Amino acid sequence: MLIRFLIRDVMIVGATGLAWWGLAARSAGTGLMADFSGWIVGLLLFACAYLAHEWSHYLGAVAMRSNVLVGTNLGSGFLFSFQPEGNSVAQFVVMSVSGFVATAAAVAFFYYGLPDEYLATRIARGGALFLAFLGVALEVPLLTYGLITRAVPKQVAV
Asked: What does the domain layout of the chain look like in residue ranges?
């Protein structure tokens, strides 16, 4: 099933690249087409940042030889479930932090690698900052709890 997630996500990244190539510059203008192009490309870039975040969590877990269950629903944005049983706090920390690294890389790329004048860029930046906010609001408390209690939180498997 993992290969299907990989194919799906490579196709999304490829479609995003094509959309950037064909539409992003149009988002520098004004009017309906500029706004539409900006939103479409910006949201696709945000989706790519989210996928990078999730894949980074997964790769961090795999690098630490963690006990994970790969997802079975291609319609879901979640690739896997980190199992609290059979995993150490160190495995949990690496899995958690690796997602933050990908999000930070996306924020940096969107701010330093994309042109300021495109609406697509600004939408992507907002999406990446929202992703960072979600990480701080939803994932940092679990990470903090795990570090304080020196145990893998049971909520990770949800």
From this structure: 2-157
